[in-house]
Amino acid sequence: MHRHDRFVRKIVPAGAVSVLATVLLVGYAAEPDRYTRGFEPEQPVHFSHRLHAGDNHIPCQYCHTGPSKSRTAGVPPLETCLNCHRVTRTDRPAIQQITAWAKSGKPFEWRRIYSLPDHVYFDHRPHVNSGIACQECHGEVQRMERISQAMSLRMGACLACHRDPSDALPPGSSIKQGPTHCAVCHR
Amino acid sequence: MRDSERKLWKTPEQALGALGAPSGEFPEGAQEAMELPEAGPSRRRFLGLLGASAALASGSACSRKVDRGPIVAYTRKPEEVIPGVAAHYASTFQEGETASPVLVKSREGRPIHVQGNDEHPFGWGKAPLRATADLLGLYDPDRLRGPVVDGKPATWDVAEGRLAAGVKDAVAKGTQVVLMTGAVVSPALASLVDELGRLIPGLRHVALEPASDAVARDVAREVYGEPVVARPRYDKADVVLSLGADFLGTMDGASQAIAQFAGRRKPADVGSPMSRLWVLEGSMTLTGSKADHRLALRPSALGKVGFAIARALAVRHGLPLPAGLTLETLPPLDLGKVAAECRLDAKALEALAGDLARAKSVALAVAGPGAPPEAHAACHLLNAMLGAVGATVELEPVPRARQLATAAVLDALVADLGAGKVGALISWGVNPSYVWPDAAGWAAAAAKAPFRAHLALSLDETAAVSGVVLPVNHWLESWGDFDAGPGLTSLRQPLIAPLFDTRQGEEVLLALAIGLGARLPGDFHAYLAGLWQQGHSLAGPVPFERFWHASLHDGFVRRAIAPAAPPPLKPAALVTAAAAAFQAVPAEGLELQLVPDSKVYDGRYANNGWLQELPDPVSKVVWGNPLSLSLADAKRLGLALGDEVRLEAAGRSVTVPVLEQPGQAEGVVTLALGYGRAAGSVAAGVGVSAWPLVGTNPASPFGVGPVKVTPAGRNSRVVRTQEHHSLDGRDLAKLWTRAEYAKERGAHEEAPVSLYADQQFPEHKWGMAIDLSGCVGCSACVIACQSENNVPVVGPEQVERGREMAWLRIDRYYEGSPDAPRVVHEPMLCQHCDSAPCENVCPVAATTHSPDGLNQMAYNRCVGTRYCANNCPYKVRRFNFFEFNQNLSEVRDLAFNPEVTVRPRGVMEKCTFCVQRISNAKQVAKAEGRPMRDGDVKPACAVACPAEAITFGDLKDASSRVAKLAGSDRRFHVLGELGVRPAVTYLADVRNPSGEGTE
Q1: Domain boundaries, chain A
Q2: Which of B174, B369, B742, B830 minimizes the number of CB atoms within 10 Å of its CB?
Q3: Which pLDDT score is estimated for B196?
Q4: What pLDDT does B454 receive?
Q5: Which of B670, B695, B689, B719 is nearest to B603 (CA)?
Q6: CA B942, CA B620: separation in Å to the nearest integer?
Q7: Residue B989 DSSP code
Q8: Would you state the pLDDT for residue B41?
Q9: What single-letter DSSP state applies at residue B899?
């Protein structure tokens, strides 16, 4: 046997395999989508979007008033809930609970689902104002009993749509592309 | 003279050619590891180290399926708040006797930026530099969290109980109650003080503004026989004569003065009229740096020169003397002889007199705090002779409540304190233990007062010796009303509920009044509104509620007032002053000028890191106050930068490092007040307190002479940014006289032909124009940028290594001889070059060009190679060597602008043209269904510039202001010959010297 044979036949392939395995393993472990999509935490109050947005057809922006005029969509103040629930379903424990909170003035904490990193400045306004439905990014909220993260928040997901937004835009929209330069989101 | 023959220089060494090689491309220590000082780390250094040793922040890009924190919903949303949208509220910043209407930007109820109120009725709605910077004062971690009684935290009930008991005790014993405050320019506060005066027999109100110009007040009172204040109108004056008056820099109300002055200094074309500025001064000031003619002389001679000019106006130009004065009553001060005596150019003084005589009522003379009383008197005489009173100078009577304590009042106070005649001493908004020149004398006298209470923001020097310390609200947490000019009252409303357990100072006084039996509301807003309602009920048919809310919205109330006829001059006072000027013998040796600092003022802002790290506009010194002296004096005394000297006057002394200041008059040394604080985690130990030297010359507290300067044989650190980011040796800034303007206009550099295709800008191409004629170098833009863009403070050790982080700096170049240089200020920021050299060398494409002309920087892509900074010809890129903005206290974090990334260690950063404002303006226009208009986007620097020297806009829109300016015949690009195609166009600084036939 040549003195290099063992090296060529065993060590090199083993090394190559282990390098490849490491790359794949790290890549798999670091793949953020696996961690992020489908995140569906328990909320402090069981609020059903299926019931409100789906069955009762309440428009998204009735409660989330921000997206057409602010970067953020905003979480409705408790007062908005009580607009209806001062009279409707006041017998339910959850309603009694939020009525009590609203009376006490104690700030109410929802669990955050969509969380962008600090160096990303997403703006709801251009998206909502160009007619893109909330569901394009947030999924079929009207069918969700509990909200779960529908869209990947990797830059690739943003860019894919910015490069070809035709599926997301309403028919007849004049917009061909979204901007793709850095300063649009990073500043 | 061709520009290429002109040498711009930054340091005297360069001018003299002493240094062959350009100094410090790499500042000392730039490449060395950081070493701990033996004495242990300071707080700032500790923060840097903490950041340095912290592990790199883990990528937050992939938030996992774990808790991502809460979203806190409003229970009841305030109607005007839209989360994510900034609201602006009008309020008022007051400093000394000047109140400035400001707008405060608020996000989700927390103030994040202060700018001028652009609806200011006189059009001077620019925020003073320190109004913008004092945002940090609100979020200062050193602020008191609650009352302190006998050194221990206490409740408000206990503290206010002690205050009331202390006052009652003093009254019962028949001793005085002394209330020390700053200037009272608030009508409501004046009424409250009156109220207390009725309740407390023997209440003595002392309004102390230690840095204000006492000489000007005293002289005006003598010359006019009643307390008046002269308000110069630089916007109306064709010729301005400054006798040591730094009205563009350190004097009160500088932002208004800059707005007025600069409006007359930006020629639209070669024939546009410009005002002319003559400056006679001892120190090199910002005003001197913008002068058309600057004559350096000892300030003690200013009176003599002033009266000689007045005499020349009467004798040679036939201007009438005011009633009661004749040539015989004035001493025979001949212009030529005085010029020879003061070693000035007689021809220049004659030209000055000629200028004034021609301009007559549109001329204006003004004297500064460091000038002797005779110079102030001479200015009153000159203005009266020229007919300027009522035209370019408005005389305003000073109401009793606004009158500040004179030196005699303060001396009497110390005497009474020492004699035990004062039973209670309440101080608020003043810090006598720090500013009192004879600190030991004050301490001994004040200790005799059995009860001492101090109302303050933080534990300052006076709080340390006061039994009861009551924490007060910051102005952004307070209500108020302030006299802001003739017929104008500016209102203050709180932007945020008190962050800590503090109360508004007025409320403490209200509580005291109530405790003494008055029937008053305990809430200052109710008191204030009540006073306004009383005044309002006599006025119009508008219901008070509506009037009040509308006024709070606007930020001010205007009343029509009839201008009062100016009181006649008292000839006797002028004759005395003229005689004094005539007899004044030029002092032998050195004389000292004390000035309020251009940044920390009288020391009240010394705990503000933004201000401490702001380079002084003239000397470019940060974190300290060296003694400026002329090059000749430095040579004679064998002193170089940083050598310490002992400065002695009338038995008091301080030891300071020195700085050679080009343009400083020989025989004059200058020292800034406001440093050498003993309290404050940022302020303590920075610089040297100059207060001990104030008033050693009773006639002129800030102009002291003679002083003895002895080398101390030691050397200490003077940190300045002067040589950092040097672009020297090239033709960088254009400074033209009007004749040169006529000759050289339109001769612009040709950018080399590029082999690459031009960048395409489909929609917009953002660009900026900076008019150097308007720019006075005040640095308001630098602070505004720092506040808007979360630019960190790095501390003197890092600045010394050239690691300051300012995105926008102001380069100051000298031209001509070091003894009498001309000065040009050039704001320098990222030029957003079309062919940006930084973009080509980035290995990871972290910096690229946007389709609207921005050189964009993606922080998360940056790996910190710093190639870009190396390749940037303008040296405007900044690298985060440490986690400067991490590990700040929780309350300091609130000052951050949520629209701008807080950059971590290891990334490059630079000016973005306030891309967050561009993006927002774009979306607002889109939502309103209209194209973007000129003026939609205003970067923080452009908004802050009192001179309106910075214009931003779309260069593709030919009708935009910036596009028009970019086509001006004064335009040039800094380093345009490199072919990098900068988006920033500069307009040459044009001066208007006399004798060029352009009068």
Answers
A1: 1-30, 34-75+110-184
A2: B174
A3: 95
A4: 97
A5: B689
A6: 22
A7: E
A8: 42
A9: T
Architecture per CATH, B589-720: Beta Barrel (2.40)
- Of B82, B856, B916, nearest to A70 by CB-CB distance is B82
Partner B contacted by A129 (CB < 8 A): yes
Residue B17 Cα to chain centre, angstroms: 33
Integer-rounded Cα radius of gyration of chain A? 24
B686/A83 Cα distance (integer angstroms): 58
Name the A residues in 135-164 with CB < 8 Å from any B CB.
153-154
The answer to whether residues B655 and B712 touch, using CB atoms and an 8 Å cutoff, is yes
- B-chain CB neighbours of A182 within 8 Å are 848, 850, 856-858, 861
Pure H helices in B293-438: 302-315, 335-341, 346-359, 373-386, 407-418, 432-435
Give domain limits for chain B.
3-26+722-991, 148-211+401-483+497-518, 214-263+274-398, 589-720
How many Å apart are CA B172 and CA B66, to the nearest integer?
67
Contacts of B65 in chain A (CB under 8 A): 35-36, 38-39
pLDDT tens-digit map of A4-52: 788 888 889 999 999 999 998 888 777 666 667 888 889 988 999 999 9
pLDDT digits (tens, 9 = 90+) for B447-486: 999 999 999 999 999 999 999 999 999 999 999 999 988 8
Mutation to test the B interface, candidates A69, A182, A184, A185, most B Cβ within 10 Å? A182
Q: CA of B550, closest CA in chain A: separation in Å?
A: 25
* ipTM for the assembly: 0.87
CB contact under 8 A, A75 and B76: no
Q: Does A91 touch chain B (CB under 8 A)?
A: no
Chain A residue with the nearest C-alpha to that of B86: A70
Contacts of B72 in chain A (CB under 8 A): 107-110
Which chain A residue lies closest to B929 (C-alpha atoms)?
A129
What does the pLDDT look like over B225-270, one tens digit per residue? 999 989 999 999 999 999 999 999 999 899 999 999 999 999 999 8
Name the CATH superfamily housing domain B214-263+274-398: Dimethylsulfoxide Reductase, domain 2 (3.40.228.10)
Which residues in chain B have Cβ-Cβ distances shorter than 8 Å to A67? none
**CB burial of residue B156 (10 Å; 0-12, 13-18, 19+):** middle
B938-947: string of b/e by CB count within 10 Å (b at 16+)?
bbbbbbbbbb
Q: How far is CA B711 from its chain centroid? A: 31
Rounded Cα distance, B475 and B482, in Å = 12
Provide the number of CB pairs (under 8 Å) joining chain A to chain B: 141
Strands, DSSP E only, in B515-629? 556-558, 590-595, 621-622, 627-629
Instruction: Please tell me the CATH code under which domain B3-26+722-991 is placed.
Output: 3.30.70.20
CATH code, B148-211+401-483+497-518: 3.40.50.740
Cβ contact B659:B629 at 8 Å: yes
Closest Cα of chain B to A28: distance in Å? 13
Cβ of A30 within 8 Å of Cβ of B848? The answer is: no
List beta partners, residue B708.
Answer: B648
Residue in A107, A118, A121 nearest the CB of B75: A107
Measured distance CA(B566)–CA(B560) in Å, rounded: 18
A27 touches chain B (CB under 8 A): no
Cα A3 to its chain centre, rounded Å, is 58
Q: What residues have CB less than 8 Å from B331, skipping those under 6 apart?
A: B307, B578, B579, B581, B582
Subunit contact A187:B912, Cβ cutoff 8 A? yes
* Chain Cα centroid distance, residue B613: 13
Residues of B in contact with A162 (CB under 8 A): none
